[in-house]
Amino acid sequence: MALYVEGLNKGAANGGMAQFQEMMRQQLESSMNAELEKLLDSTKGSDREVSRKDFEGFRNLFQRFLQVKGPSIEWIKIQRPPEESIQPYERILGRGLPDSVADCLNKLVVVKLNGGLGTSMGCKGPKSLISVRNENTFLDLTVQQIEHLNKTYNTNVPLVLMNSFNTDEDTKKILQKYTHHRVKIHTFNQSRYPRINKESLLPVSTSLSMTGQSAEGWYPPGHGDIYASFYNSGLMDQLIAQGKEYIFVSNIDNLGATVDLHILHHLVSQPNGKRCEFIMEVTDKTRADVKGGTLIQYEGKLRLLEIAQVPKAHVDEFKSVSKFKIFNTNNLWISLPAIKRLQEQKAMDLEIIVNPKTLDGGQNVVQLETAVGAAIKCFDNALGINVPRSRFLPVKTTSDLLLVMSNLYSLDAGSLTMSPRREFPTTPHVKLGSSFTKVQEYVSRFESIPDMLELDHLTVSGDVTLGKNVSLKGTVIIIANHGDRIDIPAGSMLENKIVSGNLRIMDH
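^ UTP--glucose-1-phosphate uridylyltransferase, sequence as received from the core. Prediction below:
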């Protein structure tokens, strides 16, 4: 990137800025094409064909990246979305359900984004295979939810997993255990794109191999890749041929993202001329969500605005809960024929996210990515629905894991719902320290999950363990200083307490 910018500056100094810029861009494109061809020549057979399709998508992204001049959003043009473009969930609920729920469900495919690893929680392999409740993994709960729908309504809603090269092999091994469940499971793979050197803007990898040092040269390009990779896989055409019309897409670690029959009914009951092709579920922002993408009206279209697109001078304004009141949950309902149309017309225009990374050897690279929700501007009659917070229950950390494992939630047919015994509809704020970051460490520090029904806030820091049947109420702060250890005894009840220093109960 530095070389590109340096070249542009020289061009500007010589007075022929636009001409020089175009020459540099063409030179970079040509160099990139030559490098991609070399990579393709290093393999044969079906791998080469898959990589060729991936590289088509990457070339397109790279060309657009070189052409981008300045921010993709002019702040002055941003408007609040018209009221009718973001509907309250209550209005959707008020329409009731049709006589034949089965007819709606048979038009639906559930797609889970399953490309991520569990490394941030100290786990190897796909994140979807981490146990989250009663020994059930994220994938187990997803299968149970859809199987329950299929049995209840005598339908055939399939589950599709978008894997990445990081998760595909391990996921496919585990899928054998669901053979006798009433859910047809399909998979397809996200694209594999080359990381590019921050200086030269050329691929860092010299072969398509995924072993040794070469593996670091590749990445899955964000969930916005779903449109191209789903289309390229051939699976989309199969599902359309079976009469499927809509996909419900969500992150596999969002335990609140279950099939909502009312939203589905709203989609399929629209008159043909005004058929809604895209619904984004949004929910009210809290202070914890200030960085989340929001919906805006821009040049006459509903559009997703991400913090990465916001000019520095306006970041505080973007984070303001009073101006931008809602954020994207990444629960999306999208028309399959519309995706097919936009792919064939090459009209899927997604903003590029430039993600800088440093490899293990210290090399600075760039990943070009896209986000699935950014496509909302490309679809006809797109709509936001302001859903209850309960539909956004992501598990990104062990603090989130503690919430979903606790008695705050009850589990029924794979779905978690807030316990009716909880007096407040909001979840407590939980902050576990670095000693709890990895799932294995976290599990070893709780003899059993505490009673948290009346908890408002929990902070735990340092070398702390909790015994069996501990009850936490109100605000509880437990801090063991460096070198100290705190053991909360079995059966303890802590209500509005700060525990610090050194507390160790030993058997004798």
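The longest strand covers residues 326-335.
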